[in-house]
Task: inverse folding
């Protein structure tokens, strides 16, 4: 941006030097010159201020274009050149019913380069080098949650895993979880308070080793939601992934999700399983007008 003071001083000095060598130079002329410079400087200042405001507010030229409006079609997105793009699938589960080779086959079809293999092992990832990463698992079978039942020993073993550099996160844990055909309101299949001291220690490990920690949590209970906020405020250096857009087996509330994202900069979502949940009347993620798109993994 032009320095108005510099323009003013430069012009004034030039005119004064010239005037001093001329006869008949009067105070009236000097006043006229000063007035002209002030008007010019003010015009320049207004122009740049006006341009900056338009740029920051996202205004565009009023010139008509042939580009159709997509304001009423928020699922529309620009074409993406996936041929020159590495795709990372942040949420894949290994299962006795699906082999690693089948997972790799599906990844290749979808042009997925790397996947996070929940409940995977170092042996699994070594079978297909460079295709999988794994998290320090938080097993919850049999009930009560195995990781919670192990107590401090589980925290210690998780930290030992993270120290190796071979584990890229913690989870996916089930905190408040409805499975199968169990839907809120009701009794969740798994219910671990998010402010449980053991869980908060795992959140601290996320911050200490700069790795994400992921979990299920359905925000359908006022008391549980208070405990959830306690967890989110516990350590702002933790990298928190709220799986399934936060609303597994519960109708998605985009206003609530946006509110959480705006209030907690270290909170992220994944969209895993959303397509399969549509049969229960839950909309796809494209129907959410997320204000923090970069926080969806």
Result:
């Amino acid at each position: 941006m032009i320095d108005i003071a510099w323009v003013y001083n430069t012009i004034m000095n030039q005119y004064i030097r010239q005037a001093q060598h001329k006869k008949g130079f009067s105070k009236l002329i000097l006043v006229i010159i000063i007035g002209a410079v002030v008007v010019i400087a003010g015009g320049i200042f207004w122009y740049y201020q006006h341009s900056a405001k338009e740029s920051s507010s996202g205004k565009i030229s009023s010139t008509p274009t042939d580009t159709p409006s997509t304001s009423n079609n928020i699922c529309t997105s620009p074409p993406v050149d996936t041929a020159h793009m590495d795709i990372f699938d942040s949420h894949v589960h290994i299962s006795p019913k699906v082999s690693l080779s089948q997972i790799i086959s599906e990844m290749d079809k979808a042009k997925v380069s790397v996947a996070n293999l929940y409940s995977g092992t170092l042996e699994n990832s070594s079978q297909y080098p460079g295709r999988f990463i794994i998290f320090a698992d938080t097993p919850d079978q049999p009930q009560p949650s195995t990781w919670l039942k192990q107590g401090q020993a589980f925290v210690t073993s998780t930290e030992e895993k993270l120290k190796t550099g071979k584990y890229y996160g913690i989870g996916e844990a089930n905190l408040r979880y409805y499975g199968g055909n169990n839907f809120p309101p009701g009794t969740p299949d798994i219910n671990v308070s998010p402010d449980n001291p053991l869980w908060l220690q795992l959140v601290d490990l996320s911050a200490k080793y700069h790795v994400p920690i992921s979990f299920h949590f359905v925000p359908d209970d006022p008391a549980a939601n208070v405990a959830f906020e306690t967890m989110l405020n516990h350590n702002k250096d933790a990298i928190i992934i709220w799986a399934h857009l936060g609303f597994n087996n519960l109708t998605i509330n985009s206003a609530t999700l946006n509110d959480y994202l705006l209030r907690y900069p270290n909170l992220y979502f994944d969209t895993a399983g959303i397509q399969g949940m549509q049969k229960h009347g839950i909309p796809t993620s494209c129907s959410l007008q997320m204000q923090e798109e970069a926080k969806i993994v």
Q: What stands out?
A: The chain has two domains: 4-57, 135-295. Residues 135-295 form one domain. DSSP finds ten helices and eight strands in the chain. Strands lie at 87-93, 112-118, 132-133, 170-177, 190-191, 212-217, 239-242, 267-269.
